[in-house]
Write a structure and sequence with these properties.
The chain has helices at residues 13-33, 44-55, 58-103, 108-194, 196-243, 247-252, 254-389, 394-455, 457-462, 464-494, 497-536, 540-743, 747-762, 785-793, and strands at residues 774-776, 782-783, 811-813. It is mainly α and 817 residues long. It has a 3-stranded antiparallel β-sheet with strand order 2-1-3.
Length: 817
Amino acid sequence: SPPASPFPHPPAGLCGISAIATTKQRSYFYTSANTSPPPPPLSENAKGFLSTLEQSSEEELTLHLQDRMQFSKEAIACLVCVFDRLHSHISDMCKVVQAAGFEDDSQSDIINLNCTLLDENTRLRDLATLLQGRHHKMSMEYNELVDKVTSSETKVTEMETTVEDLQWDIEKLRNREQKLNKHLAEAMEQVLLCNTFLYFESLNAELEHNQELANSRMAELEKLQVELQEAVRESEKLKMDLRNIPEEVVKETLEYKCLQSQFSLLYNESLGVKTQLDEARALLLTAKNAHLRQIEHMESDELSLQKKLRTEVIQLEDTLAQVRKEYEMLRIEFEQNLAANEQAGPINREMRHLISSLQNHNLQLKGDVQRYKRKLRETQLEINKLRCQSGDTGVLILEETTSDSIDVKKEEDEDQEEEEERRRELERQRAREREREREREAERERERERERERQRSDELKRKDSDTLKMLRVELKKAQESQKEMKLLLDMYKSAPKEQRDKVQLMAAERKSKAEVDELRMRVRELEERERKESKKLADEDALRKIRVAEETIEHLQKKLAATKQEEEALLSEMDVTGQAFEDMQEQNSRLLQQLREKDDANFKLMSERIKSNQIYKLLKEEKEELADQVLAFKTQVDAQLLVVQKLEEKEGVLQSTLAALEKELAVRTQALELNKRKAVEAAQLAEDLKVQLEHTQAKLKEIQVSVAENRTARERESSNLKRAQEDLSRLRRKLEKQKKVEMYSDADEILQEEINQYKAKLRCPCCNTRDKETVLTKCFHVFCYECLKMRYDTRQRKCPKCNCAFGANDFHRIYIT
């Protein structure tokens, strides 16, 4: 906590100030001792300095003098320090000499004499300093007295000039009064000659006026007397207060409080700065230690991570080299397979064209067979109709027709099964062709991609991920199509041809058995009908019909023989075509077997390729994972580097803040030293100001005396001036009355003129025709109502005399009686 007063003990700097004062006194002493010769003439620098002083203002002068005073104080302080050093050096030398003298007993008298001389020298020096101080004090008092004399002389000259001016004004007023008195005497003589009544009235008016003047002067005198008594009391009170100023008043002054508050603030600030400095140093030490630890930890982590990365990168490079070798091997195998497939491609195309042409020829043959079968069915139907029309031979015909129909149905079923097998084979061929076309398209796309990869090797490095994604999508599509085709092939392969033929034969047998059963049922029904009809048809008509039926049967048998011959011819042709068809089927089966073998080889190659692609994908994924890990490690390293940079930046910031705090501490210490110096200077200034205050109090007393004298003189002059003005106004009234008497011989005319003047005063000053009847409540000037109303309506809402603004509620009527 700071002390109660700013200067509880005399500071150490006061010793230096006393030394400065002693040196000043010595310098004054030496200057006073050397003032006997006449002063030398002023140099050009001194003249220039005096001219600048004359041209500069008071503030500039004070600032300049303060700077010079500060410089002189510093110079004198340096001189005092040098002098003290010399004095201490001399005293040390004396002590050394004394010590050396004590060793020699022969020089004891000389040493004693030297000590006495030194004591005498110090006494004389103290006396010289005391005399110098007295001389300095006397010179200061003399200068102050000289300043007072000059100021009093200037004031006396100013007062003399004012007195002369006032005397001149008084003489002027007296001369004017004499002239007015002469005019008044003349006017009085004329008035006496004119009329006694007017003279009596004028005397009464003068008497009243004089009474008013006397009363006013009496009041002024009483007022002045009261003011004089109050001023005397206040002056005595102020004198008493100035003589004994209490310490409490001094402590309550603003200067004392300001100094005390500044001292306490500076003391508190110095304590706060010290605590902040200690805290900052502790923080800096902790931050440095933590930073060093963190840097060591990060370096160790970085070394371990670098080792891990190196090992992992070496492993990845080894795996990548292996993968590249495997990829090259697979690529070479794939190119060889592609070349073999390209060589076998035209042969396969020719075979497909042959198979398609043979299939078309077979289809044509099948169409012919079906057409012949249709004709045969039509003929059989006609035969059946004829047989149905016949009577006895119906059963035989039905049996033959049933056998024929069964044969025809069997042949139709076989034809349908063959057509279904052909359709299935066609569908298989088409599916295989589609698969091959897809594979070719995929191979073409891969070849294009390879060409693009070869052309854009630099771009592939950047766009590996995109190409891999595209390849994955295409591979997925190819795998899906391959799975579908495999399912179809498995379904076709799972059911062999013999089983399919057996199934078809079993189905045909079932159908034929069902048809035979139906035909037997029909034969039985027909036999029953024939029996019934044989019983009924026992007459001749039946015989005729039988004959006709027999004739028709013979005719039909002939036709049947012809049709049988045609059927045999057709069957022979069908046998030939069937054998050719079987040969073609055998050839097709051989070709299909070859195609299947090639497809199996292609499938094997495709499976191997898929496996290689899968291995390649796995290796790619491992490579990507390793690349991601490398990137992650890189990001970790970058993050750690960023952390290190941030910590370094923090360290720099802390160092800068520490430097700033150190600078601030240095500035604060300098400010504290400056404030101490200022406090010492303020104490010295306070002493100087006390001396100046005493001088100013003395000056103030003299000025108060002169002011009182001037005030009394001015009051006298003002009273004389007032009296002269009153006399002048009184004489003017007399003069006006005398002029009226001279102008108007009759008293009635005079009174009439006065009445006219009073009436003119009651008229409106704007129009001079109407009487005053409205007053403005803001400025209380009176006008006629019409003029004010017209100004209000025309928006000239200001008083004609004083230009004061008014509104609708600011003027009212008055009635003068």
